[in-house]
Amino acid sequence: MVNLLRPPSVSSHRLGTITGLWGEQSPYDRRALNTGIVHFGPGRFFRGHLAYIIHNYLAQKGSPEQRWGICGVSLKSQRTITTLKPQRFLYTLTKHSSCAKNREEAEVIGSIREIVNGREKCEYVLEKMASPSVHLVTLTITQGGYHLDKNFNLDTANEDIAHDLQNPSTPTTAIGFIVEALRRRCDYNMAPFTTLSCDNLPRNGEILRKAVLAYADLIDPTLAEYIRDNATFPNTVVDRIVPQEQESDYNYPNRLLQVRDRAPIVTEPFWQFVVEDNFTGDRPKWEDAGVTMTNDITPFLYMKSRFLNAVHSFVACLAVRAGIKYMHDAIRQPEFHLFTRLLMDDIAAATPVPRHMCEQYMAYY
Predict the structure, then answer these.
(1) In sequence order, what are the residues at sequence separation of 6 or more whose Cβ sits closer than 8 angstroms to the Cβ of residue 25?
(2) Terminal-residue alpha carbon distance, the chain
(3) Which residues, 6 or more positions from 146, have their beta carbon under 8 angstroms from its beta carbon?
(4) Is 3.30.70.141 the CATH number for 2-295?
(5) Whole-prediction pTM value?
């Protein structure tokens, strides 16, 4: 990782490659990585959040934990594959803050072994998911990728779900892939993998489990019973701001690492990942990398919805009326900062969460 407050100017002809930099300074051997995680939806948020967390975990733990490499699966746009494949799926991540004297940190992320087109390589993905080395299937597919109706139930009238129900061995949806892969693991007398939603949905694991069981029941009630009795779908809380791609993103790897990057990620420094500790088998000991493992997700859902979502909404509404365009500019104003602190004090008093947990969350403002 590089920390620079005043990065040097680098002429374009001196810029190196990401693969070259990784070869010189890699924190672990990617050639020794085994796939332990299959991830659906390898977009920007995933690369700025879960792939980053796994990368740091691998960098801390080294060779004993190299069974947690990631195979990404794209079911929609193939732009990520086209962009990252020439870089061997390496990319840069820059943490940028408008506070702390414009501190910037950049590093190359190496946790993704490959990203494949799930629709073209359906059988390859299913066999990967049915492999004994895979213990986790994770998702960042947005709410639309779950194909839910307005009541958050599986929309069986959806064209893609209807296709998969008629052709369960060649699925095109994440739900279809999960159920078919679990069927194969059942047939192989293997333990099911743990399926982990990393999407910003309240009680996302419960929503996912309900959709998977509804789909499986329509195919084979016996399979649905196996999934219900043996598979787990932990709830999670995720948080990190990963903005849409900006032209300025490409300047960071140039300045900070002296490399060209076709797919740079720029994020805020803060991130949060809270996971219910309810797994069917092996898992990374990623609490060592800053992940919060818990037996009860409820307090964290309260804090996310009330302290983050509600407070941001209040501040945003006031900022619009004040003619302020960006949240970080609004919160710097003394009156906005005072309002935020008073509002959070009131929220803390009305939230059924221990005060010290509220104060930890409030400290980030």
Answers:
(1) 108
(2) 26
(3) 154, 174, 175, 199, 207, 208, 211
(4) no
(5) 0.91
Residues 94 and 347: their CA atoms lie apart, in Å, by 33
In angstroms, what is the C-alpha Rg of the chain?
22
Token pair listed for 264: 């740079």
The ranges assigned to domains in the chain are 2-295, 301-362
What pLDDT shows up at residue 332?
84
Q: Are 230 and 191 in contact (CB under 8 A)?
A: yes
b/e for 221-245, b at 16 or more Cβ within 10 A? eebbebbeeebbbbbbbbbbebeee
Contact 198, 51 (CB under 8 A): no
State the amino acid at position 1 in one-letter form: M
Residue holding tokens 């998969």? 164
How far is 121 from 128, CA to CA, in rounded Å? 11
How do residues 136-162 score in pLDDT, each as one tens digit?
999 999 999 999 999 999 999 999 999
35-77 pLDDT tens trace = 999 999 999 999 999 999 999 999 998 767 889 999 999 999 8
What is the residue whose two structure tokens read 């499986």? Answer: 216
88: which 2 tokens? 């061997």
Show the 3-state SS of the chain. CEEECCCCCCCHHHCEEHHHHHHHHCCCCHHHCCEEEEEECCCHHHHHCHHHHHHHHHHHHCHHHCCCEEEEEECCCCHHHHHHHHHCCCEEEEEECCCHHHCEEEEEECCEEEEEECCCCHHHHHHHHCCCCCCEEEECCCHHHHCECCCCCECCCCHHHHHHHHCCCCCCCHHHHHHHHHHHHHHCCCCCCEEEECCCCCCHHHHHHHHHHHHHHHHCHHHHHHHHHHCCCCCEEEECCCCCCCHHHHHHHHHHHCEECCCCEEECCCCEEEEECCCCCCCCCHHHHCCEEECCCHHHHHHHHHHHHHHHHHHHHHHHHCCCCCHHHHHHCHHHHHHHHHHHHHHHHHCCCCHHHHHHHHCCC
Task: Report how far residue 178's alpha carbon sits from residue 181's, in angstroms, rounded to the nearest whole number.
Answer: 5
